[in-house]
Design brief:
The complex is a heterodimer of chains A (165) and B (440).
Chain A lengths: L1 H7 L6 H9 L12 H8 L17 E9 L4 E6 L9 H15 L5 E6 L7 H8 L2 H8 L2 H11 L6 H4 L3
Parallel strand pairs in A: 2-3
Antiparallel strand pairs in A: 1-2
Helix pairs in contact in A: 4-7
Chain B lengths: L3 E8 L6 E6 L5 E6 L4 E5 L13 E5 L8 E6 L5 E6 L4 E6 L14 E7 L6 E6 L5 E6 L3 E8 L10 E9 L5 E6 L6 E5 L4 E7 L2 E8 L6 E6 L5 E6 L4 E6 L29 H6 L3 H17 L6 H9 L4 H7 L4 E7 L7 E6 L6 E6 L4 E6 L7 E7 L7 E6 L9 E7 L4 E7 L2 H10 L1
Helix pairs in contact in B: 2-3
The chains are: A alpha+beta (165), B mainly beta (440).
Chain lengths: 165, 440
Protein backbone atom coordinates (compact mmCIF):
# COMPACT_ATOMS: atom_id res chain seq x y z
CA UNK A 1 0.00 0.00 0.00
CA UNK A 2 2.72 2.39 0.93
CA UNK A 3 4.64 1.67 -2.23
CA UNK A 4 1.64 2.11 -4.49
CA UNK A 5 0.62 5.42 -2.99
CA UNK A 6 4.23 6.41 -3.28
CA UNK A 7 4.32 5.71 -6.96
CA UNK A 8 1.31 7.89 -7.54
CA UNK A 9 3.40 10.86 -6.59
CA UNK A 10 6.67 9.51 -7.88
CA UNK A 11 6.70 10.95 -11.37
CA UNK A 12 8.04 14.25 -10.24
CA UNK A 13 4.58 15.51 -9.61
CA UNK A 14 2.84 16.92 -12.56
CA UNK A 15 -0.25 18.31 -10.92
CA UNK A 16 -2.43 16.72 -13.54
CA UNK A 17 -1.66 13.28 -12.20
CA UNK A 18 -3.21 14.03 -8.87
CA UNK A 19 -6.10 16.20 -9.94
CA UNK A 20 -8.15 13.24 -11.15
CA UNK A 21 -8.33 11.70 -7.74
CA UNK A 22 -9.51 14.94 -6.19
CA UNK A 23 -12.56 15.53 -8.31
CA UNK A 24 -14.15 12.29 -7.17
CA UNK A 25 -16.81 12.25 -4.52
CA UNK A 26 -15.03 11.86 -1.22
CA UNK A 27 -17.74 9.64 0.21
CA UNK A 28 -17.43 7.03 -2.52
CA UNK A 29 -13.71 7.31 -3.25
CA UNK A 30 -11.81 6.98 -0.02
CA UNK A 31 -8.27 8.25 -0.17
CA UNK A 32 -5.17 6.50 0.96
CA UNK A 33 -3.94 8.15 4.09
CA UNK A 34 -0.67 9.99 4.00
CA UNK A 35 1.57 9.84 7.01
CA UNK A 36 4.43 11.83 8.48
CA UNK A 37 6.92 9.29 7.24
CA UNK A 38 5.82 9.59 3.63
CA UNK A 39 6.06 13.34 3.71
CA UNK A 40 9.46 13.09 5.33
CA UNK A 41 10.47 10.70 2.57
CA UNK A 42 9.53 13.32 -0.01
CA UNK A 43 11.67 15.97 1.61
CA UNK A 44 14.68 14.27 3.15
CA UNK A 45 16.75 14.09 -0.03
CA UNK A 46 16.35 17.72 -1.05
CA UNK A 47 19.73 19.32 -1.56
CA UNK A 48 20.85 22.30 0.42
CA UNK A 49 21.48 25.23 -1.90
CA UNK A 50 24.89 25.93 -0.36
CA UNK A 51 26.22 22.65 0.96
CA UNK A 52 26.78 19.32 -0.72
CA UNK A 53 24.41 17.76 1.79
CA UNK A 54 20.77 16.88 1.97
CA UNK A 55 18.32 18.69 4.21
CA UNK A 56 18.07 15.53 6.29
CA UNK A 57 21.81 15.39 6.83
CA UNK A 58 21.84 19.02 7.92
CA UNK A 59 18.82 18.37 10.15
CA UNK A 60 16.97 21.15 8.42
CA UNK A 61 14.12 18.71 7.89
CA UNK A 62 13.23 16.42 10.76
CA UNK A 63 10.59 13.79 11.05
CA UNK A 64 9.37 15.19 14.37
CA UNK A 65 8.58 18.52 12.78
CA UNK A 66 6.25 17.13 10.15
CA UNK A 67 2.59 16.75 10.99
CA UNK A 68 0.01 15.15 8.74
CA UNK A 69 -3.65 15.37 9.64
CA UNK A 70 -5.62 13.18 7.26
CA UNK A 71 -9.00 14.13 8.69
CA UNK A 72 -8.36 17.81 8.24
CA UNK A 73 -6.31 17.16 5.09
CA UNK A 74 -3.56 19.33 6.41
CA UNK A 75 0.22 18.99 6.26
CA UNK A 76 2.47 21.15 8.37
CA UNK A 77 6.22 21.17 7.82
CA UNK A 78 8.53 23.10 10.08
CA UNK A 79 12.13 23.37 9.02
CA UNK A 80 15.19 24.47 10.98
CA UNK A 81 17.71 26.66 9.20
CA UNK A 82 21.28 25.70 9.99
CA UNK A 83 22.01 29.09 11.54
CA UNK A 84 19.61 31.79 12.83
CA UNK A 85 20.65 34.26 10.16
CA UNK A 86 20.76 31.78 7.31
CA UNK A 87 20.33 33.77 4.13
CA UNK A 88 19.04 30.74 2.27
CA UNK A 89 16.11 30.10 4.59
CA UNK A 90 13.62 31.56 2.14
CA UNK A 91 14.98 29.48 -0.71
CA UNK A 92 14.91 26.31 1.37
CA UNK A 93 11.34 27.03 2.37
CA UNK A 94 10.41 27.60 -1.25
CA UNK A 95 12.03 24.30 -2.25
CA UNK A 96 10.06 22.44 0.41
CA UNK A 97 6.88 24.12 -0.73
CA UNK A 98 7.49 23.34 -4.39
CA UNK A 99 8.33 19.73 -3.73
CA UNK A 100 5.14 19.30 -1.72
CA UNK A 101 3.13 21.19 -4.31
CA UNK A 102 4.29 18.78 -6.95
CA UNK A 103 3.93 15.57 -4.97
CA UNK A 104 1.07 15.92 -2.53
CA UNK A 105 -2.53 15.69 -3.74
CA UNK A 106 -4.32 19.01 -4.15
CA UNK A 107 -6.79 18.20 -1.42
CA UNK A 108 -4.13 18.78 1.23
CA UNK A 109 -3.52 22.24 2.62
CA UNK A 110 0.18 22.65 3.15
CA UNK A 111 1.85 25.06 5.56
CA UNK A 112 5.61 25.43 5.50
CA UNK A 113 7.17 27.46 8.27
CA UNK A 114 10.35 27.91 10.22
CA UNK A 115 10.69 25.91 13.43
CA UNK A 116 9.88 28.50 16.11
CA UNK A 117 12.92 30.29 17.44
CA UNK A 118 15.35 29.05 14.83
CA UNK A 119 15.63 32.13 12.65
CA UNK A 120 16.02 35.87 13.19
CA UNK A 121 13.33 36.86 10.73
CA UNK A 122 11.05 33.88 10.95
CA UNK A 123 7.81 35.87 10.92
CA UNK A 124 8.68 37.66 7.72
CA UNK A 125 9.82 34.46 6.04
CA UNK A 126 6.76 32.53 7.19
CA UNK A 127 4.45 35.20 5.88
CA UNK A 128 6.09 35.20 2.49
CA UNK A 129 6.26 31.41 2.20
CA UNK A 130 2.56 31.14 2.86
CA UNK A 131 1.50 33.87 0.47
CA UNK A 132 0.63 31.75 -2.52
CA UNK A 133 0.59 34.70 -4.85
CA UNK A 134 4.21 35.52 -4.07
CA UNK A 135 5.15 31.85 -4.32
CA UNK A 136 3.38 31.59 -7.68
CA UNK A 137 5.14 34.69 -8.95
CA UNK A 138 8.49 33.42 -7.75
CA UNK A 139 7.99 30.16 -9.60
CA UNK A 140 7.44 32.07 -12.83
CA UNK A 141 10.92 33.49 -12.46
CA UNK A 142 13.11 31.24 -14.65
CA UNK A 143 16.32 31.86 -12.70
CA UNK A 144 14.73 31.06 -9.37
CA UNK A 145 12.86 28.10 -10.78
CA UNK A 146 16.06 26.60 -12.10
CA UNK A 147 17.72 26.87 -8.69
CA UNK A 148 14.71 25.18 -7.12
CA UNK A 149 14.62 22.47 -9.76
CA UNK A 150 18.28 21.81 -9.15
CA UNK A 151 17.64 21.48 -5.43
CA UNK A 152 14.70 19.15 -5.93
CA UNK A 153 16.12 17.06 -8.78
CA UNK A 154 16.62 13.35 -8.13
CA UNK A 155 15.17 13.58 -4.65
CA UNK A 156 12.69 10.75 -5.00
CA UNK A 157 14.71 7.86 -3.72
CA UNK A 158 12.18 5.12 -3.58
CA UNK A 159 14.58 2.41 -2.58
CA UNK A 160 14.17 3.53 0.99
CA UNK A 161 10.41 3.24 0.75
CA UNK A 162 10.63 -0.21 -0.74
CA UNK A 163 12.90 -1.19 2.12
CA UNK A 164 9.82 -1.18 4.34
CA UNK A 165 8.68 -4.43 2.73
CA UNK B 1 -37.42 26.76 1.34
CA UNK B 2 -34.78 28.43 3.40
CA UNK B 3 -31.89 30.37 1.96
CA UNK B 4 -29.35 28.22 0.20
CA UNK B 5 -26.68 27.98 -2.46
CA UNK B 6 -26.82 25.65 -5.42
CA UNK B 7 -24.35 25.04 -8.18
CA UNK B 8 -25.85 25.88 -11.56
CA UNK B 9 -22.90 25.60 -13.93
CA UNK B 10 -19.29 24.48 -14.16
CA UNK B 11 -17.11 26.25 -16.69
CA UNK B 12 -14.11 24.21 -17.73
CA UNK B 13 -11.33 25.33 -20.01
CA UNK B 14 -8.65 26.98 -17.96
CA UNK B 15 -5.67 24.71 -17.54
CA UNK B 16 -4.28 26.26 -14.38
CA UNK B 17 -5.32 28.17 -11.28
CA UNK B 18 -8.12 30.68 -11.87
CA UNK B 19 -7.22 33.94 -10.15
CA UNK B 20 -9.94 36.39 -11.06
CA UNK B 21 -13.29 36.98 -12.69
CA UNK B 22 -15.59 39.83 -13.60
CA UNK B 23 -19.11 40.21 -14.98
CA UNK B 24 -19.95 42.54 -17.80
CA UNK B 25 -22.40 45.21 -16.60
CA UNK B 26 -25.37 43.42 -18.17
CA UNK B 27 -24.44 40.10 -16.59
CA UNK B 28 -24.46 38.34 -19.97
CA UNK B 29 -20.71 37.78 -20.18
CA UNK B 30 -18.31 36.55 -17.53
CA UNK B 31 -14.57 37.07 -17.93
CA UNK B 32 -12.11 34.87 -16.07
CA UNK B 33 -8.32 34.92 -15.93
CA UNK B 34 -5.78 32.36 -14.97
CA UNK B 35 -2.22 31.32 -14.35
CA UNK B 36 -2.54 29.67 -17.78
CA UNK B 37 -1.95 33.22 -19.16
CA UNK B 38 -5.34 33.50 -20.81
CA UNK B 39 -8.56 35.37 -20.29
CA UNK B 40 -11.71 33.45 -21.14
CA UNK B 41 -15.07 34.96 -21.89
CA UNK B 42 -18.23 32.98 -21.24
CA UNK B 43 -21.72 33.74 -22.50
CA UNK B 44 -24.07 33.37 -19.60
CA UNK B 45 -27.55 32.44 -20.63
CA UNK B 46 -29.74 32.09 -17.59
CA UNK B 47 -33.45 31.60 -17.92
CA UNK B 48 -33.94 33.52 -14.71
CA UNK B 49 -35.51 30.43 -13.23
CA UNK B 50 -34.22 27.64 -11.09
CA UNK B 51 -32.11 25.00 -12.77
CA UNK B 52 -28.85 24.85 -14.63
CA UNK B 53 -27.39 27.79 -16.51
CA UNK B 54 -25.84 27.52 -19.95
CA UNK B 55 -22.37 29.06 -20.07
CA UNK B 56 -20.42 28.26 -23.24
CA UNK B 57 -16.95 29.70 -23.67
CA UNK B 58 -17.19 32.54 -26.19
CA UNK B 59 -13.56 33.54 -26.57
CA UNK B 60 -10.04 32.87 -25.36
CA UNK B 61 -7.81 35.91 -25.14
CA UNK B 62 -4.14 35.28 -25.01
CA UNK B 63 -2.10 35.11 -28.21
CA UNK B 64 1.33 36.17 -27.00
CA UNK B 65 0.17 39.15 -25.05
CA UNK B 66 1.27 37.99 -21.64
CA UNK B 67 3.89 35.39 -20.88
CA UNK B 68 3.02 35.17 -17.22
CA UNK B 69 -0.04 34.75 -15.00
CA UNK B 70 -2.99 37.05 -15.57
CA UNK B 71 -4.02 38.03 -12.09
CA UNK B 72 -7.17 40.12 -12.53
CA UNK B 73 -9.56 41.01 -15.29
CA UNK B 74 -12.17 43.76 -15.41
CA UNK B 75 -14.66 45.08 -17.95
CA UNK B 76 -14.91 48.80 -18.47
CA UNK B 77 -18.25 50.14 -17.32
CA UNK B 78 -19.67 50.14 -20.86
CA UNK B 79 -18.41 46.60 -21.44
CA UNK B 80 -16.42 47.59 -24.52
CA UNK B 81 -12.93 47.07 -23.14
CA UNK B 82 -11.28 44.57 -20.85
CA UNK B 83 -8.30 45.35 -18.64
CA UNK B 84 -6.10 42.38 -17.73
CA UNK B 85 -3.32 42.73 -15.15
CA UNK B 86 -0.40 40.38 -15.45
CA UNK B 87 2.58 39.25 -13.42
CA UNK B 88 4.67 40.28 -16.43
CA UNK B 89 4.38 43.87 -15.19
CA UNK B 90 1.86 45.10 -17.74
CA UNK B 91 -1.84 45.65 -18.00
CA UNK B 92 -3.35 44.88 -21.38
CA UNK B 93 -6.49 46.53 -22.72
CA UNK B 94 -8.62 44.43 -25.04
CA UNK B 95 -11.33 45.59 -27.36
CA UNK B 96 -13.55 43.76 -29.77
CA UNK B 97 -13.18 44.88 -33.33
CA UNK B 98 -16.52 44.70 -35.03
CA UNK B 99 -15.08 44.67 -38.53
CA UNK B 100 -13.23 41.54 -37.60
CA UNK B 101 -16.49 39.67 -37.68
CA UNK B 102 -15.93 39.11 -41.41
CA UNK B 103 -12.48 37.78 -40.81
CA UNK B 104 -11.86 34.10 -40.33
CA UNK B 105 -13.33 33.08 -37.00
CA UNK B 106 -10.71 32.59 -34.37
CA UNK B 107 -10.70 31.64 -30.75
CA UNK B 108 -10.43 35.23 -29.63
CA UNK B 109 -13.67 36.07 -31.49
CA UNK B 110 -12.44 39.44 -32.66
CA UNK B 111 -10.97 40.57 -29.35
CA UNK B 112 -7.60 42.22 -29.76
CA UNK B 113 -5.09 43.71 -27.39
CA UNK B 114 -5.02 47.41 -28.27
CA UNK B 115 -2.70 48.83 -25.64
CA UNK B 116 -0.43 47.74 -22.87
CA UNK B 117 -0.02 49.93 -19.82
CA UNK B 118 3.55 49.76 -18.66
CA UNK B 119 5.40 51.11 -15.68
CA UNK B 120 5.36 48.66 -12.83
CA UNK B 121 8.72 47.13 -12.03
CA UNK B 122 7.30 43.65 -11.69
CA UNK B 123 4.00 41.84 -11.04
CA UNK B 124 0.83 43.84 -11.52
CA UNK B 125 -1.72 42.40 -9.12
CA UNK B 126 -4.84 44.34 -9.88
CA UNK B 127 -6.17 46.78 -12.49
CA UNK B 128 -9.49 48.60 -12.17
CA UNK B 129 -11.43 51.13 -14.24
CA UNK B 130 -12.57 54.35 -12.65
CA UNK B 131 -16.35 54.81 -12.76
CA UNK B 132 -15.95 57.45 -15.45
CA UNK B 133 -13.90 55.12 -17.63
CA UNK B 134 -11.29 57.87 -18.01
CA UNK B 135 -8.78 56.38 -15.59
CA UNK B 136 -7.32 53.03 -14.70
CA UNK B 137 -5.64 52.29 -11.39
CA UNK B 138 -3.17 49.44 -11.06
CA UNK B 139 -1.12 48.10 -8.18
CA UNK B 140 1.65 45.62 -7.78
CA UNK B 141 4.53 44.04 -6.00
CA UNK B 142 6.63 47.18 -6.36
CA UNK B 143 4.54 48.69 -3.51
CA UNK B 144 3.02 51.35 -5.73
CA UNK B 145 -0.36 52.25 -7.13
CA UNK B 146 -0.32 53.73 -10.63
CA UNK B 147 -2.97 55.92 -12.14
CA UNK B 148 -3.30 56.06 -15.88
CA UNK B 149 -5.47 58.60 -17.62
CA UNK B 150 -6.95 58.44 -21.04
CA UNK B 151 -5.75 60.96 -23.60
CA UNK B 152 -7.42 61.09 -26.97
CA UNK B 153 -5.30 59.84 -29.83
CA UNK B 154 -3.05 62.51 -31.22
CA UNK B 155 -4.71 64.03 -34.25
CA UNK B 156 -6.16 60.75 -35.39
CA UNK B 157 -9.83 60.88 -34.67
CA UNK B 158 -11.40 57.48 -34.20
CA UNK B 159 -8.10 55.89 -33.30
CA UNK B 160 -7.57 54.17 -30.02
CA UNK B 161 -7.07 56.51 -27.12
CA UNK B 162 -3.69 56.38 -25.54
CA UNK B 163 -3.05 56.24 -21.83
CA UNK B 164 -0.67 58.25 -19.77
CA UNK B 165 0.58 57.83 -16.26
CA UNK B 166 -1.06 60.55 -14.16
CA UNK B 167 0.31 59.61 -10.76
CA UNK B 168 2.41 57.07 -8.96
CA UNK B 169 1.18 56.67 -5.42
CA UNK B 170 3.76 55.51 -2.93
CA UNK B 171 3.23 54.83 0.74
CA UNK B 172 2.67 51.12 1.15
CA UNK B 173 5.69 49.35 2.58
CA UNK B 174 4.93 46.01 0.91
CA UNK B 175 3.27 44.72 -2.23
CA UNK B 176 -0.19 46.01 -3.00
CA UNK B 177 -2.73 43.26 -3.56
CA UNK B 178 -5.89 45.01 -4.57
CA UNK B 179 -7.14 48.41 -5.59
CA UNK B 180 -10.74 49.65 -5.81
CA UNK B 181 -12.44 52.91 -6.80
CA UNK B 182 -15.16 54.44 -4.74
CA UNK B 183 -18.35 53.98 -6.82
CA UNK B 184 -18.49 57.71 -7.47
CA UNK B 185 -14.82 57.96 -8.29
CA UNK B 186 -14.25 60.08 -5.24
CA UNK B 187 -11.20 58.22 -4.03
CA UNK B 188 -9.27 55.01 -4.32
CA UNK B 189 -8.59 52.25 -1.81
CA UNK B 190 -5.64 49.91 -1.88
CA UNK B 191 -5.01 46.77 0.19
CA UNK B 192 -1.57 45.47 0.95
CA UNK B 193 0.70 42.79 2.29
CA UNK B 194 1.70 45.45 4.85
CA UNK B 195 -1.67 44.73 6.59
CA UNK B 196 -3.09 48.18 5.87
CA UNK B 197 -5.68 49.73 3.61
CA UNK B 198 -4.79 53.11 2.20
CA UNK B 199 -7.13 55.75 0.87
CA UNK B 200 -5.87 57.94 -1.95
CA UNK B 201 -7.40 61.05 -3.40
CA UNK B 202 -6.74 64.48 -4.73
CA UNK B 203 -4.91 66.75 -2.35
CA UNK B 204 -5.45 70.06 -4.12
CA UNK B 205 -4.42 69.21 -7.67
CA UNK B 206 -2.29 66.20 -7.04
CA UNK B 207 -3.10 62.73 -5.94
CA UNK B 208 -1.86 61.79 -2.51
CA UNK B 209 -2.41 59.68 0.55
CA UNK B 210 -5.48 60.63 2.55
CA UNK B 211 -5.72 57.92 5.13
CA UNK B 212 -4.29 54.69 6.39
CA UNK B 213 -6.84 52.28 7.80
CA UNK B 214 -5.46 49.75 10.23
CA UNK B 215 -7.13 46.81 11.86
CA UNK B 216 -6.23 43.67 9.97
CA UNK B 217 -3.35 41.75 11.48
CA UNK B 218 -2.09 40.21 8.26
CA UNK B 219 -2.14 40.72 4.48
CA UNK B 220 -5.30 42.40 3.21
CA UNK B 221 -6.25 40.56 0.02
CA UNK B 222 -9.44 42.16 -1.16
CA UNK B 223 -11.81 45.09 -0.90
CA UNK B 224 -15.38 45.58 -2.08
CA UNK B 225 -17.62 48.62 -1.85
CA UNK B 226 -21.35 48.37 -1.40
CA UNK B 227 -23.59 49.82 -4.10
CA UNK B 228 -23.55 53.44 -2.91
CA UNK B 229 -20.05 53.59 -1.47
CA UNK B 230 -21.17 54.19 2.10
CA UNK B 231 -19.57 50.96 3.26
CA UNK B 232 -16.88 48.60 2.14
CA UNK B 233 -15.65 45.17 3.16
CA UNK B 234 -12.06 43.99 3.36
CA UNK B 235 -10.78 40.43 3.64
CA UNK B 236 -7.48 39.20 4.93
CA UNK B 237 -4.99 36.48 5.65
CA UNK B 238 -5.96 37.02 9.30
CA UNK B 239 -9.14 35.07 8.44
CA UNK B 240 -11.47 37.95 9.13
CA UNK B 241 -13.68 40.17 7.05
CA UNK B 242 -14.04 43.72 8.26
CA UNK B 243 -16.92 45.97 7.39
CA UNK B 244 -16.03 49.66 7.26
CA UNK B 245 -18.64 52.35 7.51
CA UNK B 246 -18.48 55.98 6.60
CA UNK B 247 -19.42 58.11 9.56
CA UNK B 248 -21.28 61.36 9.21
CA UNK B 249 -18.77 64.18 8.80
CA UNK B 250 -17.37 65.32 12.10
CA UNK B 251 -16.65 68.91 13.06
CA UNK B 252 -13.01 69.58 13.60
CA UNK B 253 -12.35 71.05 17.04
CA UNK B 254 -12.36 74.69 18.12
CA UNK B 255 -11.74 76.96 15.17
CA UNK B 256 -14.25 75.27 12.95
CA UNK B 257 -16.55 77.69 11.18
CA UNK B 258 -19.98 77.36 12.73
CA UNK B 259 -22.65 78.95 10.62
CA UNK B 260 -20.89 79.55 7.37
CA UNK B 261 -22.94 79.22 4.28
CA UNK B 262 -21.73 78.48 0.83
CA UNK B 263 -20.98 81.63 -1.14
CA UNK B 264 -23.75 80.77 -3.54
CA UNK B 265 -26.13 80.66 -0.60
CA UNK B 266 -27.17 77.10 -1.36
CA UNK B 267 -26.40 75.81 2.06
CA UNK B 268 -24.00 75.44 4.87
CA UNK B 269 -20.45 74.54 4.17
CA UNK B 270 -19.53 71.66 6.37
CA UNK B 271 -16.05 71.83 7.86
CA UNK B 272 -14.96 68.54 6.30
CA UNK B 273 -15.51 70.14 2.92
CA UNK B 274 -12.20 71.84 3.38
CA UNK B 275 -10.26 68.65 2.92
CA UNK B 276 -8.78 67.99 -0.45
CA UNK B 277 -10.69 64.87 -1.22
CA UNK B 278 -14.06 66.54 -0.98
CA UNK B 279 -12.97 69.60 -2.83
CA UNK B 280 -11.91 67.38 -5.67
CA UNK B 281 -15.40 65.96 -5.78
CA UNK B 282 -16.68 69.35 -6.85
CA UNK B 283 -16.83 69.17 -10.58
CA UNK B 284 -18.28 72.53 -11.49
CA UNK B 285 -15.45 74.97 -11.98
CA UNK B 286 -17.53 77.97 -10.91
CA UNK B 287 -18.33 76.14 -7.75
CA UNK B 288 -14.63 75.58 -7.17
CA UNK B 289 -13.87 79.21 -7.74
CA UNK B 290 -16.48 80.20 -5.24
CA UNK B 291 -15.05 77.78 -2.79
CA UNK B 292 -11.59 79.19 -3.26
CA UNK B 293 -12.91 82.68 -2.69
CA UNK B 294 -14.57 81.46 0.41
CA UNK B 295 -11.37 79.88 1.64
CA UNK B 296 -9.47 83.08 1.05
CA UNK B 297 -12.05 84.99 3.01
CA UNK B 298 -11.70 82.48 5.77
CA UNK B 299 -8.00 83.11 5.95
CA UNK B 300 -8.40 86.87 5.90
CA UNK B 301 -11.21 86.98 8.39
CA UNK B 302 -9.75 84.70 10.96
CA UNK B 303 -6.00 85.14 10.85
CA UNK B 304 -5.64 85.44 14.60
CA UNK B 305 -8.25 82.91 15.66
CA UNK B 306 -7.25 79.80 17.53
CA UNK B 307 -5.00 77.41 15.71
CA UNK B 308 -4.47 79.66 12.77
CA UNK B 309 -1.84 77.37 11.39
CA UNK B 310 -4.17 74.44 11.23
CA UNK B 311 -6.72 76.60 9.51
CA UNK B 312 -4.20 77.60 6.97
CA UNK B 313 -3.16 74.05 6.38
CA UNK B 314 -6.70 72.92 5.98
CA UNK B 315 -7.34 75.67 3.55
CA UNK B 316 -4.33 74.67 1.55
CA UNK B 317 -5.31 71.06 1.72
CA UNK B 318 -1.85 70.19 2.91
CA UNK B 319 -1.71 68.12 6.01
CA UNK B 320 0.76 65.87 7.69
CA UNK B 321 -0.29 62.26 7.88
CA UNK B 322 -0.87 62.26 11.60
CA UNK B 323 -3.10 65.27 11.45
CA UNK B 324 -5.10 63.65 8.70
CA UNK B 325 -5.74 60.61 10.81
CA UNK B 326 -6.62 62.73 13.81
CA UNK B 327 -9.04 64.82 11.83
CA UNK B 328 -10.61 61.68 10.45
CA UNK B 329 -11.93 63.79 7.60
CA UNK B 330 -13.71 61.02 5.83
CA UNK B 331 -14.52 59.13 9.00
CA UNK B 332 -14.25 55.51 8.03
CA UNK B 333 -14.56 53.15 10.92
CA UNK B 334 -14.57 49.40 11.18
CA UNK B 335 -18.16 48.72 12.22
CA UNK B 336 -18.10 44.93 12.24
CA UNK B 337 -15.54 42.14 12.17
CA UNK B 338 -16.57 38.73 10.88
CA UNK B 339 -14.40 36.42 12.89
CA UNK B 340 -14.42 32.68 13.47
CA UNK B 341 -16.06 31.74 10.18
CA UNK B 342 -13.11 31.22 7.86
CA UNK B 343 -10.57 28.44 8.23
CA UNK B 344 -7.81 29.92 6.10
CA UNK B 345 -6.81 33.01 4.13
CA UNK B 346 -9.73 34.89 2.56
CA UNK B 347 -8.67 35.81 -0.95
CA UNK B 348 -11.63 37.75 -2.23
CA UNK B 349 -14.74 39.50 -1.02
CA UNK B 350 -17.60 40.90 -3.06
CA UNK B 351 -20.60 42.97 -2.07
CA UNK B 352 -23.82 42.46 -4.02
CA UNK B 353 -24.78 45.40 -6.17
CA UNK B 354 -28.53 45.26 -5.55
CA UNK B 355 -28.36 47.25 -2.36
CA UNK B 356 -29.57 44.26 -0.42
CA UNK B 357 -26.39 43.80 1.58
CA UNK B 358 -25.05 40.39 0.79
CA UNK B 359 -21.33 39.75 1.03
CA UNK B 360 -19.67 36.71 -0.50
CA UNK B 361 -16.19 35.48 0.37
CA UNK B 362 -13.72 33.22 -1.42
CA UNK B 363 -11.54 31.35 1.02
CA UNK B 364 -8.47 29.15 1.11
CA UNK B 365 -10.51 26.57 3.02
CA UNK B 366 -12.33 25.73 -0.25
CA UNK B 367 -15.60 27.25 0.91
CA UNK B 368 -17.87 29.88 -0.53
CA UNK B 369 -19.73 31.86 2.11
CA UNK B 370 -22.51 34.41 1.94
CA UNK B 371 -23.07 36.83 4.80
CA UNK B 372 -26.01 39.12 5.32
CA UNK B 373 -26.99 41.80 7.76
CA UNK B 374 -28.74 40.57 10.86
CA UNK B 375 -31.47 43.11 10.10
CA UNK B 376 -31.64 46.00 7.64
CA UNK B 377 -30.55 48.56 10.22
CA UNK B 378 -28.15 46.39 12.16
CA UNK B 379 -24.41 46.75 12.05
CA UNK B 380 -24.00 43.04 12.82
CA UNK B 381 -23.64 40.52 10.04
CA UNK B 382 -24.40 36.83 10.13
CA UNK B 383 -23.50 33.85 8.01
CA UNK B 384 -26.38 33.18 5.66
CA UNK B 385 -25.05 30.25 3.64
CA UNK B 386 -21.92 28.24 3.26
CA UNK B 387 -20.87 25.85 0.52
CA UNK B 388 -18.09 23.83 2.17
CA UNK B 389 -16.39 22.38 -0.91
CA UNK B 390 -17.20 24.98 -3.49
CA UNK B 391 -13.95 23.97 -5.17
CA UNK B 392 -11.66 21.02 -4.53
CA UNK B 393 -8.99 23.60 -3.71
CA UNK B 394 -8.62 27.19 -2.56
CA UNK B 395 -11.29 29.55 -3.88
CA UNK B 396 -9.55 32.65 -5.22
CA UNK B 397 -12.27 34.84 -6.58
CA UNK B 398 -15.97 35.47 -6.17
CA UNK B 399 -18.21 37.95 -7.95
CA UNK B 400 -21.95 38.62 -7.79
CA UNK B 401 -23.78 38.87 -11.08
CA UNK B 402 -24.87 42.49 -11.40
CA UNK B 403 -28.58 41.77 -11.73
CA UNK B 404 -31.08 39.81 -9.75
CA UNK B 405 -32.69 36.83 -11.46
CA UNK B 406 -36.40 36.91 -12.23
CA UNK B 407 -37.16 34.57 -9.35
CA UNK B 408 -35.39 36.84 -6.86
CA UNK B 409 -32.26 34.73 -6.59
CA UNK B 410 -28.74 35.98 -7.24
CA UNK B 411 -26.00 34.36 -9.28
CA UNK B 412 -22.36 34.22 -8.24
CA UNK B 413 -19.21 33.14 -10.03
CA UNK B 414 -16.22 31.57 -8.27
CA UNK B 415 -12.81 30.49 -9.51
CA UNK B 416 -10.30 28.25 -7.80
CA UNK B 417 -6.86 26.70 -7.82
CA UNK B 418 -8.40 23.66 -9.52
CA UNK B 419 -8.77 25.71 -12.71
CA UNK B 420 -12.55 25.53 -12.49
CA UNK B 421 -15.11 28.28 -12.61
CA UNK B 422 -18.45 27.58 -10.99
CA UNK B 423 -21.70 29.49 -11.10
CA UNK B 424 -23.90 29.42 -8.03
CA UNK B 425 -27.43 30.46 -7.36
CA UNK B 426 -27.99 32.10 -4.01
CA UNK B 427 -31.61 31.89 -2.98
CA UNK B 428 -32.30 34.31 -0.15
CA UNK B 429 -34.70 33.47 2.66
CA UNK B 430 -38.20 33.00 1.25
CA UNK B 431 -39.79 36.14 2.66
CA UNK B 432 -36.86 38.37 1.80
CA UNK B 433 -36.57 36.88 -1.68
CA UNK B 434 -40.19 37.28 -2.67
CA UNK B 435 -40.36 40.73 -1.15
CA UNK B 436 -37.32 41.81 -3.10
CA UNK B 437 -38.63 40.25 -6.29
CA UNK B 438 -41.96 41.97 -5.81
CA UNK B 439 -40.41 45.39 -5.46
CA UNK B 440 -38.55 45.11 -8.75
Amino acid sequence: NEASSGQGSADDGHRATTVGSVSGDSSTAPYDDFDDEEVFELLRHLNDPEHPHTLEQLRVVQMDHIKVDNDEQHISVQFTPTIPHCSQAMLIGLMLRVKLLRCVPDRFKVDVSIFPGSHNTEDAINKQLNDKERVAAALENPALLSVINKGTAHTDQWESVLAHF
Amino acid sequence: MSEHLEKVATLTGHTDRVWGCDWRHDGCVLATCSADKTVRLWNIDSSGKAGPVRAPCAAVLNSDTHDRTIRTVQFSLDGSTIAAASFDGRTSLWRREEQDLDAAPDEAAGWRCMTKLEGHENEVKCAVWSPSGESIATCGRDKTVWLYERVEGEGQGGKEPSWECAAILTGHTQDVKCVRWHPEGEFLLSASYDDTIKMWGKVTDDWGLLHTLRGHTSTVWGIAFNHDGSHFASCSDDRTVRIWTRLPPRRPPAAAPQQQTLPDGKGKLPPWYLSGVFRSAVTSSSHTEQLDQYLQQQQQQQPSEQEPQEQQEQANGVLGEEERVEMDVSGWRCSCTLQGYHGRTIYCVDWSKQGDDCIATACGDNALRVFKKASPDATEWTLSCMQPDAHGTDVNTVMWRPHREEDGSLLLATGGDDGMVHLWRYVPAADAGTAAAATE
